Amino acid sequence: MKGKSKKLILFVSLALVLSTALFGTLAYLTSEAKVTNTFTVGDVKLDLDEAKVNEKGEIVDKNGEPVVDADGNPVKDPDAVPEEDVVRTKDGNKYKLVPGKEYVKDPTVTVKAGSEDAYVRMLVIVNCADELDEIFDILRAAGAGNADLRSIFNGYDEKEWMYVGDTRSEDEDGKYITYEFRYKETVDGVVSVTDAAGNVTEKDEDVKLDALFDSFTLPGIINNDQLKALYDNDFEMVVVGQAIQAEGFADAKAAWAGFEQQMSVNAPADSDTTDSTDDNSNNGDSNGDNADSGNTGTDTGTTGGTPAGGTPAGGSSDGDE
């Protein structure tokens, strides 16, 4: 009996040990936490437009009639037009050019609500480069100003829109000059609002920038033959607005280099371009590292123009934003 009892006790003891080991494992204190990362996509959006005008370069209302002041004179400042009469166009305007006359043209960029902090620039592109060179050479020789399209812009403020330089290009349709202007600082689609208690909050809102210029004046020294040469070659002035995210770039120069790199991916391979840009500053610099342009937030707005129909009165041209 003693032998059997020992075997039974040994069996029970083993059973207890196994049970203790099993339930000890199940009794460990455990916990689990999970963090789910949510990603949103930033955006950069802009609009580009200008005041609607007639062929004389006069601001028109919603009925197409010239907007005049109390004395019956055409209003030249678009900001002076009553809000209910304001007409803006993204398609550009058509002008009949007469030497010495001023024409309203105010290309204006608006950074759309909610846009990320971005660098902004405008490009003014004109064709008929050879004809313009000849005209401006004559103007320079006559002491009428610099051989530069900026000399005809009225209301241009270099403190707001810094002139970077010009680039020349050529394709099967002709030769072009592109003038580049960069806005003085980065811009986003967010504004700060202060309530009556002095509390400051931020909200998404469109941000309208100063116009690149307010009008242009055709030099009075230009003769009819020179204007006819522009007319016969379908002279156009196209204004392009562009924006690129500021984050990830050391400064404006790096950002626009990234922009050009990104845009060149889809650019035609047969274009013949020579660069004469004088990049004399880093406008609107911000701190940060240079970024690869493959993931940049960009946007472009364009307005354009073509010559007005009919026989030019001293020449005619279509101003295309």
Shape: globular
| SSE string | HEEEEEHEEEEEEEHEHEEE
Tally of strands: 16
Taken as a percent bin, the fraction of beta residues is 25-35%
The biggest sheet, with number of strands, parallel, antiparallel or mixed sense and barrel status, is: 7 strands, mixed
Distance between the terminal alpha carbons, to the nearest Å?
112 Å
Helicity range: 10-25%
Structural class by helix and strand composition: alpha+beta
Number of domains: 1
Continuous helix count: 4
Radius of gyration: 33 Å
Poorly predicted sequence stretches spanning 5 or more consecutive residues? 8-16, 270-296, 306-321
Overall mean pLDDT score? 76
Could you list some keywords that capture this structure?
321 residues, alpha+beta, four-stranded antiparallel beta sheet, 19% helix, disordered C terminus
Q: If you had to describe this structure to a student in words, what would you say it looks like?
A:
By secondary structure, the chain is of the alpha+beta class. It has one domain (46-320). It is built from four helices and 16 strands. It has helices at residues 2-26, 129-141, 224-232, 252-264, and strands at residues 46-51, 88-89, 102-104, 108-111, 118-126, 153-154, 161-171, 174-183, 190-194, 200-204, 207-208, 215-217, 236-245, 272-274, 298-303, 318-320. The strands form four sheets. Strands 5, 7, 8, 13, 14, 15 and 16 form a seven-stranded mixed beta sheet that branches. It has a four-stranded antiparallel beta sheet with strand order 2-1-4-11, with no helix packed on it. β9 (190-194) and β10 (200-204) form a beta hairpin. The longest helix has 25 residues, at 2-26. It is globular. The N and C termini lie far apart (112 Å). The relative contact order is 0.20. The model is unreliable at 8-16, 270-296 and 306-321 (pLDDT under 50).
